[in-house]
## 1
Amino acid sequence: MPIIDVHAHVGRWQFPLTSGDADDNLRQMDRYGIDLQLVSASEAVVHDAVAGNRALREALATRPRLLGYAVVNPNRIDESAADLRRCLDTGRFVGAKIHTHYPGRLPGSSRMAEAFDLVADLRIPLLLHTWGPEVELLPDLVSARPGLRVVMGHAGGDAWREAAHAAAACDRLYLEHCRTATDAGRIAYAREAGVPVTRFLFGTDATLVDPSFALGVIRDAGFTPAERERVLWKNAADLFALTDTLPGRF
């Protein structure tokens, strides 16, 4: 079965890891049968959004199995707006990525509202780092912006119950459950809360986290074969309009 990973990174981290460049992503993808991976630059997430996005543009130019998220820094919205458009103009970027904790801006802040407006105006999907009860604010924030579609990276983290109810309340919120703590029942809880299978996505947090964690969560989630196919690639293909860029086996 094809696999699209919607949450991954290229580059080194401040943690003691051996992986570092885009070829490490490709080797890991080959190991786990991942066909296509959507990546942001770790440098852009943690240190410098513009410099990290620039380095990612270079890495993506020769690696067709990787597609990019341009990182938006809510603290430098004008700079990020121009840079986001530069990235999208290459045709190798399919969305935006916003972290909340590194820039210190949570949903509900005025700076984050400006960042949401920027992404909504461009009508591209947003991968948002979510980790905490502030996910409860997202249904209203997304509903107020018709062009905004948000993938809740980590599905709220330790607030996965709140994230499930948020996604059930807004049809433009998607759940992506990657994290190293594989709490039992997270996906079953979200389905019982009313989140349809069409709004679950597969992500790994590679190469920061080994993909085996996320693959195990999907394997044990109780999806039917048809539902698993939706989660592992069809939902992502629909959300990110990937039909024309997928490898031949799709």
## 2
Amino acid sequence: MSQQAPDKTSIDHDHVSREEILDIATLARLGVDKDTAGSYAEDISKVLGLMKTLGRVDTTGVTALSNIHEVCQELRSDVAKHDIDRERNQSVAPAVEEGLYLVPQVIE
């Protein structure tokens, strides 16, 4: 009977120890104290457990979605409107000359 190599992409355990966090922090040259490492280990273990749960979900027949809005977002038609009242808009501008907005010079 032949033995297959374990699949390295699957996660066999869903628990990370404080020591593993400290070892990884040392390799990555991160300053992590023992109390924080314990907290990180708990949080990462929870995430790994969630990933294991999600990995068991049957997604047969579910097509990939490239954008969450591609199914439900309706766009309005792109129609030019010529209802801009230049005089009304420029009436609140500090300085206008010959239909143009005047702005202070900022670069000399």
